[in-house]
Amino acid sequence: MTILLAHAMLTSWLESIGPLHGWAIATAVVVSACCAIVGTPLVVRRMSLLGDAISHAVLPGLVVAVLLGAQPGGIGVLFGATAAAMVTVWFTRFLCRQAGLWDDASVGVSFTTLFAAGVLLVTLSGSRIDLDPGCVLYGILELVPFDTVDVYGWDIPRAFLSASIVLLLVSFGMWCTWRWQLFTAFDCDAAIAAGVPTVAVTTGLLVGVSLATVTGFVAVGAILVVAMLVVPAATAERLVHRLHHAVWLAVVIAVVGAIGGYLLAWKLGTSAAGMMAVVLGVEYVIAILVAPDDGVVARLISKLVYLWRVQCEDRLASFWRAEESGQVRHEDAFGGLVNRWLCVNGQLRKQENDLVLTPQGRLNAKVIVRSHRLWETWLGKHVDLPVDHLHPPAEWIEHHLGEQVRKRIENELGNEDVDPHGSVIPREKK
Amino acid sequence: MIYSAVAIALLPYNTLVVAAGVAAVGCAAGVIGTFGVLRKRALVGDAAAHATLVGVASALLITGHRDLAVLLVGGLLSAIFAIILLVLIRKFTRTRDDAATAIVLSVSFGLGITLISGMVSRGIPGSGGLERFLLGHTASLTAHDALLLGIVSIIGVLCIVVGLKEATMVAFDPGFAAAAGWPAATIDLVLIALIAVMVVVGLPAAGAVLVTALVVIPPAVARQWTDRLIPMLVIAGAVGLLSALAGVVLSSLAVQVPTGPVVVLVATALLILSILVAPCRGILWRTRAVSGISSVPLMETEVTAATPRVMERKL
């Protein structure tokens, strides 16, 4: 029922947008979903660059498979590409272990070599293969709808069909091995100790990556597949903290990137694959700006809030100290936003032309000054600092001491109630 | 070797100058790449290389000149911008380093492709030739362009020669260099900038996608033969020179073949040969050592000392 409904909606949407663009978008969506699903564990396991290497290296596998008679975009090339991906992984490890190369350098060597071999094969085989070096780099998404196969009387693009099969395979594989993937991703050693077949899990993941890559390859080319593998996952990871949420969110982000990128490219008359990568990049930038806990905006706001609190507390304390020494602060002596905020907040009030502390404000100010002087006393007693060096650390820490810490310091100090500067430490209000 | 010498002698003047220029690029890329690889920046260079397309395309769009120097300056600016972006992402977000590299690389490449393809579809003059920067095409270089590339490369090598001591210090122990009062951060910046420059002048020879091979493979070959820096620099330079030369010659013989893949495959062939036969570290040498012909204890210590960490803890 749901499938029929979805199908009806999809069909009507495709009709409104034109069947050719519709099929291209549908292919892009399926491909990006595949890449996002396998990309998330890849990014979490710090294997993004291996994904990069595999996406370059499937080219020779694909070309050899096509030269041996497989259809580009068909199932046959999947095997060739998976084999090439395994060769890459092996070659990278060989360079690392046998040749003692640095790990990033061995990735660099292996993917450039395999990609170069692929490009050379494409160029040399000339007309015998339906790929040109340009498409290898940025795909032929616009041409996907023209290469169709007949399925029960429906003309379905070959690339869409194989991408859908790969999506099913990849999702099923991920669903079956999910707990193992999760365990291996976060603690490989513990997973080994618990008897998880980590080698099989990793190999399975890499096979999934190469399957997703080769379907993406036909649609968007070698390098932009990297964008589809890594960017949605890295974006999702900034926004949520659970791996299965990240996978779902990555799929959503990838699909938005695919549809948005295609439509933008269509309007602007440029490469759809390139634009998809750009849209994904924009999504990533938005995510690092607005991420709820460690986003740039969130951190800026919390920093500003903190600075404002420090300003207010310092002002309250200065009013309290003035009161303590019997002076009266005039309003115009301290103009500005801080005073106005404290008045609104009910910590200060106007008395004729002067500002004075309200009872509530006096209570808060006392706590600040108490923290300050307790800390100075404690430092003076336990850390051998000269008296004129006690103020700066106390000025900083007075905003951070909680009630329990103050209690402990007080207990430790015993019955000292005068700080090293000779001022009385105010008592805690019950 | 003799064949290639004969082939070079038979080439027309333009091809000769181009061959010389690109050989200088290969040599300089090998030398400067050695420092990049030692500082584990192999893939930073890759991200910068993929980003050059944006600059090359926008330089053409803004100036309207299809002069190689203008395009390469654009490429250099965008390469440096990409490196800055990479550093910012690493510093200010919790995205892992490798993912950050992959993001900068793929998104900037996508932007470059978008620009180029939009320019081509609008018929902007000269935009058709930009695709040559993807895979390298020395056959379309003029003698004038090649001279430019050669001169920039020679300046790059001279920078390294002049600052060899400083560069060595920072490459091996930046912390100590800083503690000893050297301007380590500045030297490091200069090294990164030199890598960006090499990636950009390597564009016509190897293309944006493969140019990183010019800075990674020659040092990897050199590493097989020696444990010392100066011999390593010399060998890396020679390997870069040889493979660039072979690329130019082969692609001038068969015009439709892009240069980049040829350069890379020649360099990798040299690498595999070295991994097999290099003294002390080569696989053949080690099998002999293990079978008892050479002094086993000495060999074993050398092999383990020269074998750094494996790429992934467990795969």
Describe what this molecule looks like in 3D.
The radius of gyration of chain A is 32 Å and the shape is elongated. Chain A has 430 residues and is mostly helical. Chain A is built from 18 helices and 4 strands. Chain A folds into 2 domains: 20-292, ABC transporter involved in vitamin B12 uptake, BtuC (Orthogonal Bundle), CATH 1.10.3470; 300-413, Orthogonal Bundle (Arc Repressor Mutant, subunit A), CATH 1.10.10. In chain A, helix 3 (48-67) packs parallel to helix 5, helix 7 packs antiparallel against helix 10 (198-220) and helix 12 (243-268) crosses helix 13 (272-290). In chain A, 73% of the residues lie in helices and 4% in strands. In chain A, the strands form 2 sheets. A two-stranded antiparallel ribbon of chain A has the order 1-2. A two-stranded antiparallel ribbon of chain A has the order 3-4. The mean pLDDT of chain A is 83. Chain B is mainly alpha-helical and 315 residues long. Chain B has a domain at 12-216: Orthogonal Bundle (ABC transporter involved in vitamin B12 uptake, BtuC). Chain B is 79% helix and 0% strand. Chain B starts with a helix and ends in a 9-residue tail after the last helix. Mean pLDDT of chain B is 82; it is low at 294-315. The interface between A and B is large, with 74 and 71 residues.
